Amino acid sequence: MMQVKKVSEQYVEMAVGTVKIYTFPMYVKDLVKISYVAVRGRDEEEGAVQRVLNRKRISSIKQYILDGNMFVNTFVINWNDINYRPQFLNEKIEIPLVDSVAQLLDGQHRLEGLKEAIKLDQSIRDKQILVSMVIGLGTKEAAKIFININSEQKPVPKSLIFDLYGITDDDKNYAITRSDDIARELNENVDSPYYNLIKYPGNPRGKGKIDLSTVVSTLKKYVDVDGKFVDNNIKDLNFQSQIIINYFSAIKYHWDEEELWGNSSQNVFLKAAGFIAALEFFFEYVFPKCVEKKSFKLDYLISLFDFSEVTLITNGEIKGSDGKTARKMIMDNLKEGLKTEAPEENEYEY
């Protein structure tokens, strides 16, 4: 075995249930060296629980660090290399500085923010941070720690447990739970066209436009274990939420051009009929195009529509119509603006 550099620090030991956790200070550069991220749904190895990165959050953290700040809360790692192990000597923990020997269980975005900040200020490499280490945990044990940490800091989506442990066909609550989590993301994500517009039970009068029950009941058949998302191998909550947000952002883009999205009295998509119609239209007509293109990016979704010669439907036009009729009118209006790629008649072979 090759000789490696080691660092030795005093540590504090505690137990959470049967899991021992060792907490000690560490230089940023050393944590960067020994840690790596195992993403659930992408990496098959034991302990993979991390979510896909949010670039906007990383940028915000980078600026926070460059402004002279550092973190008080610990970074949590799962040491799982069998050839090199931490040693406990004379009331100190000795850490081998070997590349990628410890999974990062918590602190993914903070560490990426540190890496970005280091590019502009090398002195950050020698700043100290707190690290809490567990040793040799499998996926279920790592997931429990991940849930424990995040449920204390901020409630995590309930359906995250399905991403961590895998979707089970016999869980009757899966579709409702996942739909509720997507609704929450629609309501709380500042980039969502429905930011603060989902009406939750108990909301003050006037707060929210679309009932939570409408969002959940419309989404659940598409996010279920036999729905369009899972059928096309799109199982991660973050991906599903981002796709829905991007789609409605594309509609908002075109309705904004006519100054209609912000007009709550005329915006059909702030009514139940419009929300339902838009989602049904998406999964019937737009979703297959995105799957074929392998892209749900906002720019691509925007490019699928051209309403330059279409009169956009408003609430005034569906007023007095029953729900089924109103939904059909809205879907027909969206269909008018959806670009077609059908060949000309003389291009077919007969």
UniProtKB/TrEMBL annotation:
Return any one Pfam family short name: DndB
Q: Which InterPro entries match?
A: DGQHR-contain_dom, DNA_S_mod_DndB
Tell me the superkingdom of the source.
Bacteria
Q: What is this protein called?
A: DGQHR domain-containing protein
